[in-house]
Amino acid sequence: MKISAKLAFFTLVSTLAYLALAVFGLGGLAAFFSHLPLVVIALATLVMAIVSLFSEGNLSSGVREDRANRWVLPVFGVLGLLSGYLPAYTDRIDFWTFGGEGVRWLGALLFIGGGALRMWPVFVLGKRFSGLVAIQPGHRLVTDGIYRTLRNPSYLGLLINGVGWALAFRSGVGLLLVALMLIPLIARIRSEEALLHAQFGSEYEAYCAHSWRLIPGIY
């Protein structure tokens, strides 16, 4: 697979910029790298960014798209920027924080685990994985493997990843931002499921009957 130089450059710059928000929020490089769990998170973020370059995920509108759902993209963007900075900042000023290094390590583990769960489906779906709510050419319904009992594993991974990031900074504000993320996320899930139902009909209904939407055993 040939990796676009422009995509690689954009991915690297945006990843470093996101980490820079946290470094700035915490008060600088010395403060950030004085916590080993945060060093682990920084390295994991860079590794996941590099790994993502080898996936076939895209922003294609495919053959059929629910354009009405595009409003969630800027909302995700704003919440993402706030999450990059505010948890670190509240950690620095000790506002609504809790725990110590143990909480940071728990956060680092959840961040890595959530990131892996977030990216795994991207590789499973390949070109069918789009940042837009869209049906891709040759789209078929995947109901085995990681999708056997869970219809949106990547979104669950995103939430776990976000919780991990918040805990790494011991931040109650960070957890609140993850909770707010549920609003556009659930709206996006509903749009995707409506589109899949329209595309696959009874096949999708049968799949929904024996699988969970986001959290196994709960939702």
Automatic annotation (TrEMBL):
A Pfam family recorded for this sequence: ICMT
Coiled coil: none
Keyword Membrane tagged: yes
Topology class, membrane: Multi-pass membrane protein
Keywords assigned: Membrane, Transmembrane, Transmembrane helix
TM ranges: 7-32, 38-59, 71-90, 102-120, 158-187
Compartment(s) where it occurs, according to its Swiss-Prot or TrEMBL record: Membrane
Protein's UniProt keywords contain Signal: no
Principal subcellular localization: membrane
Entry-linked InterPro entries: ICMT_MeTrfase, Metal_cation-efflux_comp
Record protein name field: Isoprenylcysteine carboxylmethyltransferase family protein
Originating organism: Pseudomonas cucumis
